[in-house]
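Hi P.,

Sorry for the delay on this. The queue was packed all week, but I finally got your sequence through. Input first:
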Amino acid sequence: MTKKEINAIVEGKGNKSAKMRALYNGGVSVKEIAKLLGVHYSFAYNVINKDQKKIGKKVATSRGSNSKKAKIAELAAKGYTNREIADEIGASYNYVFKIRKDEGLPKAERRSKRVAEVPVYKRVLLKLSGESLAGNKDSGLDFDVITDICRGIKKAYDAGIEIGIVVGGGNFWRGRSSGTMDRTRADHIGMLATAMNALAVADVLESMGVDVRVQTSIFMQQVAEPYIRNRAIRHLEKGRVVIFGCGTGSPFFSTDTASSLRAAEIEADVMLKATMVDGVYDKDPHKHDDAVKYDTLKLDDVLTQHLGVMDSTAAAMCADNSIPIIVFSIEDPDNIYKACMGESVGTLVKV
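Then the structure:
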């Protein structure tokens, strides 16, 4: 069927069901018919399928059936329901149900086990320090430690939580301790350090079957996507972990500030600050044995008492955008999942 003939049917008189039959008999795929007539795939499929059954035929399988089957298997393994899979791949519910049954894939009911606990926070921004990626080393990357951290991230990911991550670069470079170097240049080096860390974390997560995207606020298209807010949000909605590198892209701003900025931009429910201590104390617990840990705090108290949770710019941004912060120890990577599920870990800094 030519393009002119197709347009004549689409723009001509008659109801949509009749047009669907005419287009299908002319060799147009169900997916294309749904697109041309502005209807849902499942509606077009059901109309055509009913018509084909009357003459003892079945709806023709599209050429992309193998890839669709693979996608169905992938999503079924993650616990998606038939309806969710159908919406994701642009197929009918009946088609997904049949493939799932014929291929012996896990039943949709198994998903209830995966999400038996409902996360308190649906979308989170996780701040990882560069030092945490170095483990017991003075600098660089410890992939055993990174693997443990990524297991904690994956556990939250498997629970259906949308995760954005900001990484620091202190395991490679700290701009504020760079001696007499120009501050702007020193901060630019630090941004490049965070890009290396972002790629390392992404690689480990991908090896675990997590769908990941790295975005950087400094343009480096051969290495990562540029940071675009709407694209980042779309990745999260698609079930991808997004790792943000290069801080804010500007000198004089810390990665804590980058974390609060990204948390506000992606509309995160909470900011998770993974540190090397198990919460916020009234004084440095490494120097004072009588240091008292807070279970909860107000962001105003963090600012007025200079508690060192994060720099004042980052704390003020969280306060202005009503973003709570949970500060906890990354030495137990399960704390990431526990925090998302609302368990009491570390210190909750309320707005």
